[in-house]
Amino acid sequence: MPNWLINQMKKAYYEKNVYQIKLLNQCWYFYRKKHCS
Questions:
Q1: In terms of C-beta density within 10 A (0-12 exposed, 13-18 middle, 19 or more buried), how is residue 16 classed?
Q2: What pLDDT shows up at residue 37?
């Protein structure tokens, strides 16, 4: 997982921002799918 994404995740969890967490999870899912297939 890239560093910028980890930092965004930590921030979202710290702020308990559910929308942001879901958004980042989708980002990571698509990112991984694109780069690892």
A1: exposed
A2: 64
pLDDT (tens digit per residue) in 1-37:
789 888 998 999 999 999 999 999 998 899 888 888 6
Tokens 């989708």, located at residue: 26
Amino acid 35: pLDDT: 81
Show the tokens assigned to 15.
Answer: 């702020």
Q: Is 21 exposed, middle or buried (0-12, 13-18, 19+ CB in 10 A)?
A: middle
Place of tokens 């694109």: 34
